[in-house]
Amino acid sequence: MPCKSIGADILDSTNQNVFSFGILQEEDTWFELCPSQRVHFDYMQHHNSYLRNEYHSIAEILYKSDHAVVYSMPERVIIPEKPHDACRIHGVLTLNKVAGNFHITVGKTIHFSRGHIHLNSIFANTQTNFSHRINRFSFGDHTAGIIHPLEGDEKLFDNGQVMMQYFIEVVPTDVQKFYSHSKTYQYTVRENLQLIDIDKGMQGVAGIYFKYDMSALRVLVRQDRDSIAHFIVRLSSIIAGIVVISGMLSKCMHLIGDACCKRRYNDEPIARNNDGTATVKGAVIVS
């Protein structure tokens, strides 16, 4: 839908004025991506799917080099010959560390002392479509190399009367690398899609809802490595182990060789000579 038909704002438990969190930028665009943009978004989806579907340690997910950063969507190369049919919403909002609801619904926002309304929500039979694509969605300062769960998410709907809800649990996270230290906010997401059908008792306001809450826990991710002294001790123990094992193997080989030689000599036949001596393969034994 074009930007004139929708509104985006935040409502939290403090009942703060929706405009005090900041102003988001709205930019009319086309929902269909050009080929270069589609390649970029598919690449982002691939990373997102890999991190969601495969088992990884938290360090493996968070410790990404700067080369692994998914950069911004490239500029559109091919301009469609049709009116704008979508709205790109972007910007930065300052949130309170309490539970809140960031939502995108039909109509612009009007704030009252006890809440707010969206103008077009009072009109019936409004043609809507909340298919959406998320390029970037994060909490806190931007940290290079960290891929967030909702980045690369795409939802396509045929029915305009839907409530797409994302339930987000935000966890403060400290990432300590060898040469840098960054504070970020990781989050987990649960999704719920609800169709609105008044005849069946399924009521609600169509839109996209990001319901977030702050966790009381804090996660510390730290990279550790051995000191030089510890490394030398471990290296010395490895070398000593190799020397001891090689000595044991050498001794075993000598014992096996001696045993084989003794058995060989014991099995040789003894030839008696006329002078009272016995010969075993060149060796003379005096009797």
TrEMBL record:
Record GO cellular component, one term: COPII-coated ER to Golgi transport vesicle
Domain Endoplasmic reticulum vesicle transporter C-terminal intervals: 81-249
One GO term of the biological process aspect: endoplasmic reticulum to Golgi vesicle-mediated transport
Pfam families (UniProt xref): COPIIcoated_ERV (PF07970)
PANTHER family: ENDOPLASMIC RETICULUM-GOLGI INTERMEDIATE COMPARTMENT PROTEIN (PTHR10984), ENDOPLASMIC RETICULUM-GOLGI INTERMEDIATE COMPARTMENT PROTEIN 2 (PTHR10984:SF30)
Protein name, entry field: Endoplasmic reticulum vesicle transporter C-terminal domain-containing protein
